[in-house]
Amino acid sequence: MYDKTRRTGEHPHEQSLTASSTHSTYPGAHAGIYAFCIASMKLLAMQAALDLAKRHWQIGGTVKPLPSYADQNFLIRSDDGDFVLKLANPSWSYADLDLENQAMMQLARTAPAYAWPRVLLAVDGAHILTVDIGGETRQVRLLSYVPGRTYAEAITSLPSAQRGTLQSSLGRAVACMNRGLASLCHPAAGRAQEWNLLNLPALLDEIAHIGDLPLREIVQRRATAFCAQLPSLAARLPLCVLHNDANDLNVIVNERAEVSAVIDFGDMCTGFRLAELAVACTYAMQHEEDPVDCARHMLRGYLASAELLAEERELLHSFIVARLCHSILMATRAFRHQPDNPYILISQRGVQALLRTLDSVPAEALLPAPTEIPCEQ
Q1: Nearest Cα to 11, choosing from 250, 177, 244?
Q2: What pTM, to 2 d.p., does this model score?
Q3: 375 falls in which pLDDT band (50, 70, 90)?
Q4: Fold observed for domain 149-372
């Protein structure tokens, strides 16, 4: 799989990521393209990180580093719980980090049953601190550590009879995110975000560089059709602040095989409400022999917790396909910049296979039966 993964070190499986991981994509996707990386900033020693946590949050314990492409992160285990100390890359603005924190704090208030990363206030009441590290100004935060397994790990260990339950729980979690973030207003939420589906037209020039001609034809047809509809879709469909990255490594599953949290808020933006579910579907569906059934389970789970317009439900197929095209075009661009990195295209196999499958599946196949919709939407 290609696309996106955590940059933040909020979960132990982040340790399996290599140094080539980008701040918001799978390894190789944008390494060398982003203007910032961890190699370009002053690093903090582990003991200094622990001293920082003790001084500003009065938290001590053991500490170990967590790999991250863009930031520097530490896992701190203490008698009071486990935490992640996050030192942002200097290229991240205060507004960017404040947007993430405000979203996590709002979700903690609106959906407390989930284990969203909790933002811890420092002793002075601040949730983002500005510190000097080797003459470099850095923004520092402390978040709760989210226990559990990633969706990618959990789904592979489940028998077929139980997979639908996990898929439905993912749909419910996405619905809770949409509901919880619906009222969030923040100036940074309107920032440009290249993974926002509203940005798809900017990638259309990459279609000519897709080497696989049958795949190019599908992307050409599907992506251009979606982009042609964008102005009218933006006028008709609900827009809201999005997490925008509920991929299978950012979704955390508890011991009951239910989604307990979604982490990594670094790709937030304002976009189509429906995009939140479509993004989650593109990853979950790649794990299944019957991806259509997976999407139906997720949509039913979503509708059990939140409403979607009838038109949004009917457009889910189109949005999933658009997201897959988006991923392929981003990978195509990345490969042009890094032609010696074979992982970029190898990791696209799941994305391409799913797009080929969905290209021959009618949109209505993803819809639940009318009797399965909990209430009149």
Answers
A1: 250
A2: 0.88
A3: low
A4: Aminoglycoside 3'-phosphotransferase; Chain: A, domain 2 (3.90.1200)
